[in-house]
User: Which sequence fits this backbone?
């Protein structure tokens, strides 16, 4: 079966830390990074490097972001 993989990036300085993307992610790999505050004073969304390969490129996070600051890049499909 072919599994889609994705690479997600955030415009961190525009993130309001609403958490919508973290709630909707079916793989639960997005979190609010409470160790780093952005220039607006919010804890921005993030994905740990080691979790990025769990992304299935569903784009739900990008669709849920009220500010459209998430880019989901679909990578080649991987055979499982
Ligand atoms: S594209 Fe889907 S699986 Fe990947 S981080 Fe966004 S919501 Fe999660
Ligand atoms: S949905 Fe957008 S604004 Fe909200 S936490 Fe995620 S990236 Fe930040």
Assistant:
């Amino acid at each position: 079966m072919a599994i889609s993989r994705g690479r997600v990036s955030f415009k961190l300085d525009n993130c309001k830390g609403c958490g919508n993307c973290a709630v909707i992610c079916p793989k639960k790999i997005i979190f609010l990074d409470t160790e780093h505050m952005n220039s607006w004073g919010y804890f921005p969304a993030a994905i740990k490097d080691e979790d990025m390969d769990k992304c299935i490129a569903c784009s739900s996070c990008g669709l849920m972001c009220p500010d459209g600051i998430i880019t989901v890049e679909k990578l080649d499909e991987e055979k499982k």
The chain has a mean pLDDT of 94. Residues 20-24 form the longest helix (5 residues). Residues 24 and 61 are 6 Å apart (CA to CA). The radius of gyration is 13 Å.
